[in-house]
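Q: Could you write out the predicted structure for this multi-component system? I'm mainly interested in how the pieces pack against one another.
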Amino acid sequence: MHNLDAAFSALADPTRRAILTRLATGEATVNELAEPFEMTQPAVSQHLKVLEDAGLIVRRVEGTKRPRRLAKAGIEAMDQWLAMLRKALEANYDRLDEVLAGMEKHKKGKKQ
Amino acid sequence: MSRMTLKTEGDTHVIVTRRFAAPPEAVYRAHTDPKLIQKWLLGPEGWTMPVCINEAKAGGKFRYEWTNGKGGGFHITGELLELEPYNRIVHVERMHLPDPTPDNHIETRFEPDGAGTLMTMRMTLPDGKTRAAMLATGMEHGMEASYVRLEGML
């Protein structure tokens, strides 16, 4: 990623992360993006500008509409997030491994 | 070591699989006994679950509350729809942030896998937007942990 700092600060905002997650499911217009976040169009446009400047999304011209989609850097960022979610879940299950090992020991201890 | 898989399916599903060295009975119990749940269902480093209620019966309710010890926290409430010891749990849950998110319908299966267990968790969200929002929320907790790690590196 050539503009890593811009990408990183763009990702620091939860609304922008949610917008990227939404775009991961496909192209969307400003109206479509504004709806689930209960935000005004200008507020969403501001977030989109930050994401665009960071190289995470690109726009297309279609009549009066400017649908946005993820750029390659945005797709890579999404992959990284999924990896982070995966990590949080993995931390849970690694702990569960220990809990299960403890249960097994407890059972064996009782039998003796 | 990558024994866990996480993937999306269609527009509304998220599938998680994980293998465990213990038999299905133990893994099932670790998912239904509050004393055991409290030990592992914690998310990123530093989070604890001070409140863990699980009635562990069909039609029963559960409530899990998490805190990061720095004033941050949220809770999940849900209902247990089907319990088949030690094979299967079906439940619905929602996060309170503090407004409740749309229901996440989750089927968890525990199948014998050699001497251990293969767990398959299949989440169904009402629509693609809700799934995207849920993944973004989950990521936020992951993000927090990664920011902390990053601070440690800088």
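A: Regarding packing and overall arrangement: The CA atoms of residues 19 and 118 of chain B lie 5 Å apart.
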